[in-house]
Amino acid sequence: MSYQLIKEFNRNNRVKLIGKLTVSDFQELQALARLNLEQFGQVRLLVELEDFQGWSKETGWENSFFLEENGEGISKLAFVGDEKWKDEIFMFTGKPMRHTAIEFFPQDQIDQAQAWLSE
Questions:
Q1: Contacts of 84 (CB under 8 A, 6+ apart)
Q2: Distance in angstroms (rounded) separating the CA atoms of residues 57 and 2
Q3: For the chain, which end, N or C, has fewer CB atoms within 10 Å of the first or last residue's CB respectively?
Q4: Rounded to an integer, what distance in angstroms lies between the CA atom of residue 67 and that of residue 89?
């Protein structure tokens, strides 16, 4: 497993991505997020990148369009991690094309990321 739920899913969620993200892990996170959206409507998500190594090079990513289908339900999305991933995270999330507010914070700014999500 390349992710860990840090906080139970509710309106404000926190997930830690560890190592390499696989298609099956991403699909599990999508399913949890869909349930969360059904229960709470608008949600905010904090994603911590810990020793993040990117995305697996397997087939199946082409069927992973969660943000495209349900992006309006996520009001804010904050990533915290090594800044070398910033541009790739923004590409993966489609930041320029989303209504969702998406920001990236350096590893030592988790408190700032949480404060931004709470605004």
A1: none
A2: 14
A3: C
A4: 13
11-49: per-residue pLDDT in tens? 778 899 999 999 988 888 888 778 877 888 788 889 999
Q: How many CB atoms lie within 10 A of CB 13?
A: 23
Q: What secondary structure does DSSP assign to 40-89, as a single string?
A: HSSEEEEEEEES---B---TTGGG--HHHHHGGGEEEEEEEE-GGGHHHH
- Name the token pair of 41: 């409507």
Residues with Cβ within 8 Å of residue 51, at least 6 apart in sequence: 18, 19
pTM: 0.87
Tokens 């906080």 correspond to: 7
Q: Which residue, among 44, 48, 43, has the nearest Cα to 104 in the 3D structure?
A: 48
- Whether pLDDT at 9 is above 60: no
Radius of gyration of the chain (CA): 13
